[in-house]
C-alpha cells in the first residue's frame, strides 16, 4: 500500500495526518481520498501539490507499494 501523508489544511480536512491506501495511479489515489474523506478534502485537493517520494506527480503517475505521497497545500511565506 502507498503511504499518504497529509499536511496543514489537507490534514485538517482529512481528519488525520496520514494513512495507507491502495491505488495504481495518483488519479486513483485522489479519487479514493475524496471518497473516504469527502467534499472538504476535495476542495483542499484542488490547490494541493501531490509529491511521490519528493517528486511532483501528475494524475497518470504510477504508484508502487513502497511509495510515499505527500499532500501539500500551498504555503504562505514572507
SS element count, helices: 3
Shape: globular
* Order of helix and strand elements from N to C terminus: EHEHHEEE
Which structural class should the secondary elements be placed in? alpha+beta
**Rounded mean pLDDT score:** 95
| Topology, number of strands | 5
The largest sheet, given as strand count, sense and whether it forms a barrel, is:
5 strands, mixed
Tell me the helix content. 25-40%
The strand order across the widest sheet is: 2-1-5-3-4
Q: Classify the beta-strand content into a percent band.
A: 25-35%
* Uncertain segments: none
Radius of gyration: 11 Å
N-to-C span: 37 Å
What features would you describe in this structure?
This protein is an alpha+beta fold and 78 residues long. The chain is built from three helices and five strands; from the N terminus they run βαβααβββ. A five-stranded mixed β-sheet has the order 2-1-5-3-4. A hairpin with a 2-residue loop joins strand 3 (49-52) and strand 4 (55-56). The longest helix is centred in the middle third of the chain and has 12 residues, at 26-37. It is globular and about 30 Å long.
In short:
The protein is α+β, with helices and mostly antiparallel strands.
Amino acid at each position: 500500500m502507498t503511504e499518504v501523508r497529509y499536511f496543514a489544511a489537507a490534514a485538517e480536512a482529512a481528519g488525520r495526518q496520514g494513512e495507507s491506501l491502495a491505488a495504481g495511479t495518483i488519479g486513483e489515489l485522489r479519487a479514493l481520498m475524496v471518497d473516504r474523506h469527502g467534499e472538504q478534502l476535495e476542495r483542499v485537493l484542488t490547490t494541493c501539490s501531490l509529491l511521490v517520494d519528493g517528486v511532483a506527480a501528475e494524475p497518470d503517475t504510477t504508484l508502487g507499494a513502497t511509495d510515499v505521497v505527500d499532500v501539500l497545500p500551498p504555503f504562505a511565506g514572507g
